[in-house]
Design goal:
The structure holds two protein chains of two kinds.
Chain A lengths: L9 E10 L5 E11 L4 E6 L5 H8 L7 E6 L2 E2 L5 H11 E4 L11 H12 L3 H15 L15 H13 L5 E5 L7 H17 L3 E5 L3 H4 L4 E6 L2 E7 L3
Parallel strand pairs in A: 3-8, 3-9, 6-7, 7-8
Antiparallel strand pairs in A: 1-2, 1-4, 4-5, 9-10
Helix pairs in contact in A: 3-4, 3-5, 5-6
Chain B lengths: L5 H12 L1 H37 L5 E4 L38 H10 L4 E16 L2 E10 L1 H4 L9 E4 L8 E5 H7 L6 E6 L4 E10 L4 H6 E5 H8 L7 E6 L5 H11 L3 E4 H4 L1 H39 L1 H9 L4 H36 L1 E3 L6 E3 L7 H27 L3 H7 L1
Parallel strand pairs in B: 3-8, 5-7
Antiparallel strand pairs in B: 1-9, 1-10, 2-3, 2-6, 2-9, 4-7, 5-8, 6-7, 11-12
Classes of the chains: A alpha/beta, B alpha+beta.
The complex binds adenosine-5'-diphosphate (ADP) and magnesium ion (MG).
Magnesium ion binds next to helix 1 of chain A.
Chain lengths: 235, 419
């Protein structure tokens, strides 16, 4: 593992998470690592090992019970909800196991939705770039289709474009290929890998798929909420 | 894309997408708006019709000389010397109360109420006995200038025989019932005898039928001069009669005049307090109907929107994960409430307008008089439409607040974990 020279885009220091309840559940403990801009990181581990919890903390959807998280050198632990929402909108892209496209909007409109959320005319400015992304993934003929008129693989590719629409610094993906057959999974992963490499974007991807994990830059393995290993891969 | 705002775009798109639910909501609002406008227009119409049957045949406000108050003996300056005989009752002179030199008062009154006044006449009224051969009946005598008095009560339109406008001295006009009771026709002569003991003979020039019992059966209309001589009041009059635009304002106007004039001022409302309290109860029940209609349409919208929010739980969670704020989500659903109520209100207003126009045109023929009149007394006012639309919009917005609040509180983590 190389020592980063630039300030890391993401840095976690001793992060822990306990879900409160009648019987409080510890989901994460003492997680410390940092990610350089442009790195493609896979997070692997058994079911219930804390992968989704970690991704939610990185995505500012939840706040840690202990430790600190810094985004681009700025401490983002315990932000106000509206401020966290703004950072998610402007700095992050999310990809989930299911596409969760809005059924009422066309593929292009869905991809532009994060831009439109900004309400500053960004969706107009970015439309050209977004159309180029559609061309890049071969979906130009499907621009105006509704999600239910697309195949599973196409839906997930549109969801990836949506995560890229705001040109975010960090892309967080929770098992983005978990719902696809292996051929589509390989294709969608390849796409994500290529586009983010070209644009020097940071990706943190939770996956069950050891083969896909082996094609990333770095694999972090969780076990019972702790980091078991953190290994660089050939890529 | 035409719509720029995130909240508006999502709101409109979802409504267009869930067409069935949208149409259902609009239908509910439209129905309640129609019902509110219809109820208030009909109740208003019924009330106006009822009040008209009372007020069409009488002045809305009457102005008369003050009653002479019996004086108390010891208040008099000369009471010290007065000899009071036990058993005697001081008596007031019996004479017609009259207003002398009344023209300046007429001008003063018309100057006081230029806005609400629709008619103002001097009136000369008294009691007479009308006789034809052996038949004698008691009646109310009015001395009029027909063309002016017709604005207080329309006899010209209701003539069934003879003439009214251009009534000459020595002529009288009476109602059909009185004419029948006396057995007279146009051209017959009758004699009139006042309480003052003055007698004269007049020719029946016209006979009318208004449908108001007291007018048709107990009124003798003669020219001003003839009435003045019968009552023995010279050039004086016995009072003034006023018609005002808003009959319900009559008491307020009477009160204002009372402050300004040295006369007794009465409105029709004082004499009809029972009818008015009945009308107030009716207004109260129509307000209840309107309230429950508004409330149920609001609840229906709330229920439909809660359903739609529940169905959108995942999309809302993903939008929030992508950076939509709680405020933006709140706006999506309150906008939906506003759009549904606006469309519903527009549709409901149109339906109400069409319905009221149609019902207002229906006619019924009276079995006794054979005259056609409106079956439904409908009064369409801008106010009724304003009320219906205003209530629907308020209810729709209020109803959307709870579902919108629930939507804004969706936690994206739960949605993500839900997979
Ligand atoms: N909202 C929650 N409340 C209580 N316990 C939770 C909650 N979310 C996750 N957990 C628990 O935290 C642990 C880690 O879960 P998760 O992060 O979803 O793991 P993974 O994504 O690796 O399967 C599990 O034991 C899970 O049951
Ligand atoms: Mg998980």
């Amino acid at each position: 593992m190389s020592v980063p020279t630039d300030p890391p885009i993401l840095a976690l220091e001793n992060v822990g998470k306990v879900y409160p309840g009648a019987v409080p559940t510890r989901a994460l403990e003492g997680v410390t690592f940092s990610v350089r801009a442009g790195e493609f990181v896979a997070i692997v581990g058994a079911s219930g090992s804390g992968k989704t919890t970690l991704l939610n903390l990185l995505g500012l959807l939840d706040s840690p019970s202990e430790g600190r998280i810094a985004l681009d050198g700025r401490d983002v632990t315990g932000l106000w909800p509206a401020e966290a929402a703004r950072l998610r909108r402007d700095r992050m892209g999310f990809i989930f196991q299911f596409h969760y496209l809005l059924p009422e909007f066309s593929a292009l409109e869905n991809v532009l939705m994060p831009c439109r959320l900004a309400g500053d005319g960004r969706d107009l400015r970015e439309e050209g770039r977004v159309r180029a992304l559609f061309a890049r993934v071969g979906l130009t003929p499907k621009l105006d289709r509704r999600p239910d008129q697309l195949s599973g693989g196409e839906q997930q590719r549109v969801a990836i474009l949506r995560a890229l629409a705001n040109d975010p610094r960090v892309i967080l993906a929770d098992e983005p290929t978990g719902n696809l057959d292996s051929r589509n999974a390989a294709e969608v992963f390849g796409l994500l890998r290529e586009i983010t490499r070209e644009a020097q974007r940071t990706v943190i991807m939770v996956t069950h798929d050891r083969d896909l994990a082996a094609k990333t830059d770095r694999v972090i393995t969780l076990r019972d909420g702790r980091m078991e290993s953190d290994t660089a891969v050939g890529g | 894309m035409a719509i720029r705002s995130f909240a508006l775009a999502v709101a409109v798109r979802q409504l267009a997408h869930n067409r069935g639910q949208t149409l259902l909501s609009i239908g509910v609002v439209a129905m309640s708006v129609t019902l509110i406008i219809f109820t208030s227009s009909l109740i208003r119409g019924v009330q106006v019709r009822l009040v008209n049957t009372i007020t069409d045949s009488i002045p809305h406000v009457r102005i008369m000389p003050l009653e002479r108050q019996p004086e108390v003996l010891w208040d008099r300056a000369d009471a010290g010397d007065a000899v009071v005989r036990v058993g005697t009752v001081p008596k007031l002179e019996q004479r017609v109360r009259k207003i002398e030199g009344w023209q300046p008062w007429l001008e003063r009154i018309s100057a006081l109420q230029p806005h609400d006044l629709t008619a103002l006449t001097a009136s000369i009224e008294g009691t007479v006995v009308i006789a034809r051969e052996s038949k004698r009946l008691s009646a109310r005598l009015v001395g009029v200038v027909p063309e002016v008095y017709n604005r207080i009560i329309d006899l010209q339109q209701n003539l069934v025989a003879g003439r009214y406008f251009g009534l000459n001295g020595g002529e009288a006009v009476i109602g059909l019932k009185l004419a029948t009771d006396l057995g007279v026709r146009v051209g017959n002569r009758v004699s009139l005898r006042s309480e003052e003991g003055i007698t004269t003979s007049v020719t029946i020039a016209g006979i009318y039928e208004t449908g108001f019992g007291s007018v048709d059966g107990g009124l003798v209309v003669v020219p001003v001069r003839d009435a003045q001589s019968l009552l023995g009041i010279g050039n004086a009059i016995t009072g003034f009669g006023l018609k005002v635009r808003d009959v319900f304002a009559a008491e307020r106007i009477a009160g204002e005049l009372r402050q300004q004039l040295p006369f007794k001022v009465e409105s029709w409302m004082q004499d009809n307090e029972r009818t008015l309290s009945g009308l107030r109860a009716q207004s109260g029940s129509s307000q209840m109907i309107i309230f429950f209609t508004t409330a149920s349409s609001g609840l229906a919208i709330a229920a439909l929107m809660v359903m739609s929010v529940t169905g959108k739980y995942r999309e809302i969670g993903i939008l929030k994960a992508m950076g939509a704020t709680a405020g933006q989500i709140l706006r999506v659903f309150t906008l939906q409430g506003a759009i549904l109520s606006l469309l519903g209100a527009a549709l409901g207003s149109g339906a109400a307008f069409a319905l009221l126009r149609w019902l207002g045109g229906l006619q019924t023929i009276s079995p006794t008089t054979g005259r056609a009149s409106e079956l439904f007394p409908i009064v369409m006012t801008f106010g009724n439409f304003f009320l219906g639309n205003g209530l629907a919009l308020a209810a729709g917005l209020a109803a959307s607040l709870y579902p919108a609040w629930r939507a804004s509180r969706v936690n994206p983590i739960e949605v993500i974990r839900g997979q």
